[in-house]
Request: fold
Amino acid sequence: MKRIDSPMSEADARSLRAGETVFLTGTIITARDKAHLRALKKSSAGEKVDLMDGATVYHCGPIMREGDGFEVIAAGPTTSARMNMLAPRAIRELGVRAIIGKGGMSKETHDALVENGGVYLAATGGAAVTLAEGIKDVTGREWEDLGMAESVWFLKVKDFGPLVVAMDAHGRSLYEEVERRVRENSGI
Reply:
């Protein structure tokens, strides 16, 4: 088990190996489909988009309670494969360092992570309330017009996890290994 600061340095990301358990402390941001699309559109138009640069991007549409600020009620992972068409560009053009989600991502996304020294961290689906316990504060929000689930939320976390390094910066993917074993054992 490792404890890593977020945002993480390239050296920290490259120190992680597939199969390790990680807890994060620091800042993570949420971003789903619409946020990725907007950030990439702005980047393509020549605008500087630095909110994802070096960031740990959590594929999550958090449930918030508004009062004196915002309180995270639930923060479960979204299926990351939804971002497969956008993630390689986000990693290469916007500087995403780490992704948290569920279900894994494409080989193209993994290739971009390897090239740029990044990792994919798997969060347990169905653990939205437990994961929210690791979120200590909401420190900001961008693109409110996208709605609660699609806005980019800046979250201060402490011992956020457990997360499993499912795709590392060295080319190892737990998802590919499982698929290979299934093919071998089923004769496909």
In short: DSSP finds six helices and nine strands in the chain. The radius of gyration is 16 Å.
